[in-house]
Amino acid sequence: MTPDPQAVTDQASPAFKPLTLTSLRRYIFFTLAALILLGPAPGQLFGKHSPWLREWVMYSGVGVGLPKGVFTVHDASGPVAEYTPLQAAGLERYPQIVHYFFETRIFEDADLTRFAANTCEALLPGQHLSFDGVVGTRKGWVPMPVANLCPQTEDAP
Amino acid sequence: MKNGQGHKIVHAITQWGPEATGSTRAAGLMRIGLGVIALIRFGNELAPYAINGLIGLSLSVLLFGFAFTTILGIRARLSVAGLGATIMLLYALGLNGVGLVTWAHHHVYLLGMACLLLSLCDCGKSFSVDRMRALATQGRVRPPAEFGALLGQRLIALQLSALYFWTAVDKSDWAFVSGQRLEQTMTWVHSGRVLEFVLHWPALLALASIIVLVVEYWLAVAILLARWRPAAIAVGLAMHISFYLLLPVNTYSITVIVLYLALLDPAAVHRFIDRMLGYPEVAR
Predict the structure, then answer these.
(1) Which domain holds residue B69?
(2) Does residue B114 form part of some domain?
(3) What was the ipTM of the complex prediction?
(4) What is the mean pLDDT of the segment spanning A88-111?
(5) Where are the domains of chain A?
(6) Distance from C-alpha of B92 to C-alpha of B102, rounded to nearest angstrom
(7) Chain B environment of A56 (Cβ under 8 Å)
(8) Could you tell me the pTM of the whole model?
(9) CB neighbourhood size of A46 (10 A)
(10) What's the domain of life for this entry (chain A) (predicted)?
């Protein structure tokens, strides 16, 4: 019987079975295939995250921390003006940056104050600002109504 | 399952995967495409005007060096492996906060992995300086065959399938199906812009979300099955072009579109190029 011309053998150690190039290709293929197909499973199914097992969750966090609703300026007589979130933040549109670099994303009530800081600064004595709406989270929109966003106006008449 | 059937399935899988051989033209085109995408993605971040220090210079030399040799096909497999390794190094630097945070994004990982997997193909046997050298050595009377191992091309197909499957898994919740997550994304991207009106149609966003979810699960399987592949490629291309127009996806969509070459029958790609160049058809 002629030897396998593709055999990669360690002649000095007969205990090892010859590893043919065919076998090597199969090991490489099935190892990489398993890594590619199952690599995201620990993180995406069981929450065991590893940077080297890439999870495919593209755009899942984009929009998290943004408000949807109405910012309203009130005075003693009642509501006097309504603003969209962009107007309340003093923006024409959200910046073209990676979303998580947007510093005024909202995760708690206090963040709404930072978001609407421009509007808070422009309030006249006796006015206060409220928010009636929802904020984006990974689980969808979550209600976050706040009656008075600008603490310095709390004691205003 | 009978033992004979099991052997047949194992045989079919090994023939499709680790033992795959065929025309190298699709792999050659992918090599050029990925090299160009790498230049576009990192060019303005690693060009000499944008870098500082020895590490920046080293990354610049590696990226530009390997990208150009990849595109030209000079020691093509080594070059595309080097380019993939460089991109994965940038990915690691991004993950660890040493490089730009955007280097740790999914489109960078996909590009790096695709280059590494492509290096497992004979991607230098077509459209390359390597081929020109082989022609010069062997002569044009009996030109070297554009034929070789395609193991890496099959792994790229599996990578695309896994990408569709796991991104669909991530979307399989009420927040996505109800259109809320898509609305959040659109709020960030389109508020105050020309397509802002879509935010006023939550039902449309919910419908679009369900379509995307169903299509991604379907693509995960359909791209691997010859019977469904033509439809899958058409639907997938439409989806990725939509992503490209509606979302700032960077090089993600164009990378996936280039990688669709891995889904095509290599012999069909070969014949198509022959027809385009006016060559007589030769069975492959």
Answers:
(1) 11-277
(2) yes
(3) 0.92
(4) 90
(5) 20-56, 61-143
(6) 11
(7) 106, 162-163, 166-167, 170
(8) 0.90
(9) 8
(10) Bacteria
